[in-house]
Amino acid sequence: MPRRLTGPAPTAVALVVAGLACQEVGAALAVRLFPETGPLGMVMLRLVFSALVLLAIARPRLRGHGAADWRAVIAFGAVLALMNGLFYLALERLALGVTVTIEVLGPLVLSIVASRRAAAWLWAAVAFAGVVALAGGGWDRLDPLGVLFALGAAVSWAFYILASARVGGAFVKLEGLALAMVVGAVLSLPLGIVDAGAALLRPEVLLIGAAVAVLSSTIPYALELIALRRLAASAFAVLMSLAPAMAAIVGFVLLGQQLHAAEIIGIALVIAASIGAVRAAARATPAAPLA
Asked: How many domains does the chain have?
């Protein structure tokens, strides 16, 4: 049976919400830096600084792994670079809340397909209705190319989950993630340097890039690890489904991005579909831990 939300659970819930807030604040900060670095330059800064932090924390060992393990790390790193690149390219053209909502469709569809339950397709229909509602604000607000980038990020996120599971089984703790982040950072260098250009020589740009990496990756991951010690995996997944709402709030407060009523309804429907799919999966496999 899953653990009940008793005792310190309210604190754990607050940690998850704080992690979501940090992640979206990091994304908003990245958007503000786009005029200086471009989206691909920002991707490079985030991955490079995230790799440096993870290397310092994990101190991965390079020996004791076969060729298959290293191929998995390279594939994971490539997915990391692609997912972040498409996400930031979408952020350049779409509101933060809309971008995150579309991106969430990746793991949502993956969970629905993996569940193999008829009820899961009900939540797929709800998610589809949410996507339709997002377009209700008009394509003058939803840039078609931005939507394609966001959908690409959604597909990449699904592959990220699969690649993460493979690397997590081959490397201990954060070692695999640290090595994959290095691969992603290296892959992002050419386009990132071209996009950012001379801005990379400015200390304040580098400082903000480091802040984005810490806010978007380091702090959320640390808070999630602590929260998972006190929350059932199913409850944690439900809370993570609230990411689109948090993104919409941060986008409004920090970037002044206002959403039409149809877009708000679309975000709500996708959140409802995510929560419904998570709860359905939890009922089907109540003892399954979060990897």
From this structure: 1
